[in-house]
Amino acid sequence: MTTAVVLYNLGGPDKPDDIKPFLFNLFNDPMIFGLPQPFRWMLAKLVSSRRDKTAREIYAHLGGGSPLLQNTRDQADALEAALNIEGEETYRCFVAMRYWHPFCHETLNEVMAQKPDRIVLLPLYPQFSTTTVGSMMRVWDKETSSRNLDIPVTALCCYPTDDGFVSAVASSVRDAMAELPADEPYRVLFSAHGLPKKIVAAGDPYQWQVEQSTRAVVEAIGQEMDWVNCYQSRVGPLEWIGPSTEDEITRAGKDGKSIVLVPIAFVSEHSETLVELDIEYREVADHAGVKNYLRTPTVGVTPAFIEGLARLVRGNVENNCNICSANGGRICGAEWSKCPVRITA
């Protein structure tokens, strides 16, 4: 039996000329902007044009394009190696991106050429949101329906408290804390990408799952510390979930605290870690008088994380569920109506 594992993420421009079309694809997603067409198309054209210059300045720090695709391919290679260490099953890992190449249809062509016996969809988002995992699932379903795909497909929707993910993050936090002087007061900021409040209010479980991830990491660290959840990357006029990472950095400075900043919802380095956290927010910290500003790396290809993903994939194959969380069922309470896993009696 051969299983194709499709790892998927947001995607990013490969070069400067890709930036505007990448932004258009992002803002033309109905899971991001819920306007009907043609109004969403018009808004996406407007916003992508207006943000093109600023985005080019951001990606200039990264050589003109995003490292996300290569980082994701590295994770796919590491996962494929881990999956094929034991057992009679053969696994092949593929990469798909939502808003830039390789798009879902391109990856599906590659998968189909290998003629696998089954397909497992694996998000590189530990926490579920309709705007990320939900958006990719919508595109996947549309693409496979148009082709009348007859290969069994199962999917993971989230793994916010998976042992591999949690232990990898906890290890990086311990390492950062060890770099601080023994008597240095500090605060750990667990930063995640934000969402408009109205999306969460409509039943999206993302914020709740982010908070579960943070609590699991704090528990794994196993020592008293000053910590807070916060959210970054706010855009547009809508009210977003908070507190904001920028505000928490400023507050830490006022409180005389150094900062250990932890990307709790990103598993790969890209513009929102390498530029927003490392450059822009470091400047905020400097202005706020923060003595030490340490940012932990994303989990990347750390063995604990990759081995955790391998366990998740094998468990998904064994459970053979259409879509499920890390535990093989649903982890979200009934109030989170946008959770894709059905409530069972």
Q: In the residues, how many domains can be counted?
A: 2
Tally the beta strands: 9
Distance between the termini: 33 Å
Count of DSSP H/I helices: 12
Query: What is the 3D form?
Result: globular
Largest sheet: 5 strands, parallel
CATH level-3 fold name of the largest domain:
Rossmann fold
In which range does the helix fraction lie?
40-55%
Structural class: alpha/beta
- How large, in whole angstroms, is the Cα Rg? 20 Å
Q: Mind telling me which CATH architecture of the largest domain this is? A: 3-Layer(aba) Sandwich
pLDDT averaged residue by residue: 95
Stretches with pLDDT under 50, minimum 5 residues: none
What fraction strand? Answer: 5-15%
Widest β-sheet, arrangement of strands: 2-1-3-4-9
SSE succession: EHHHEHEHEHEHHEHEHHEHE
